[in-house]
Design a protein that fits this description.
This protein has five helices and ten strands. The strands form four sheets. A three-stranded antiparallel β-sheet has the order 1-2-3. Strands 4-9-10 form a three-stranded antiparallel β-sheet. It has one domain. The radius of gyration is 17 Å and the shape is elongated. It starts with a helix and ends with a strand. α2 crosses α3. The chain is of the alpha+beta class. The structure holds zinc ion (ZN) (2 copies). One zinc ion binds next to loops. One zinc ion binds next to β7 and α5.
Length: 154
């Protein structure tokens, strides 16, 4: 089992609270991006780094994203579990349903297990429910990621 609290703490620790250049107060723009009120310097948190990389370079294997951004694979996996990025169809790697172990593209449980766990699909932990891939992993293709923001997949 992963230590979820550890990852959340790590994410909070990596968040910026003041400007790296002038120490001024920063505010959240969007997409994990922050701006300094005093000097206008822009910084990115871990999600911002992953998103910026995907915007710039397109979908890429998680290992490449991790190397390029310096964001740890654990945190990228955490974004996947939270449904903020997903593994697309045709990927070599998928997440595993925490209950039955089947392949899912994001979240923590497959739809079937979520139904059994909650008795209803309109469960409060909707974000934990991940879709199964339409096809089983294709060894020819590598795991690529997309990200989710404001209701749109990129
Ligand atoms: Zn500043
Ligand atoms: Zn399952």
């Amino acid at each position: 089992m992963e230590d979820k609290n550890y990852l959340e703490k790590l994410l909070i620790a990596n968040k910026h609270v003041k400007c790296e250049l002038c120490g001024g107060k920063i505010y959240y723009l969007d997409s994990g991006k922050y701006k300094c009120r005093s000097c206008g310097n822009e910084t990115l948190d871990d999600f911002g780094k992953v998103k910026a990389f995907l915007d710039q370079c397109g979908a890429a294997p998680a290992s490449v994203v991790s190397q390029a951004t310096g964001v740890s694979p654990e945190i990228i996996a955490y974004f996947l579990k939270k449904g903020r990025v997903e593994i697309p169809e045709g990927s070599k790697y998928y997440l595993k349903c925490e209950r039955c172990g089947c392949s899912i593209r994001y979240g923590r449980f497959c739809v079937e297990c979520a139904k059994e766990l909650t008795g209803s699909l309109q469960a409060m932990f909707n974000e934990d429910i991940g879709e199964r891939p339409k096809h089983e992993p294709n060894p020819e293709m590598s795991g690529r990621m997309r990200h989710y923001e404001k209701g749109i997949w990129y």
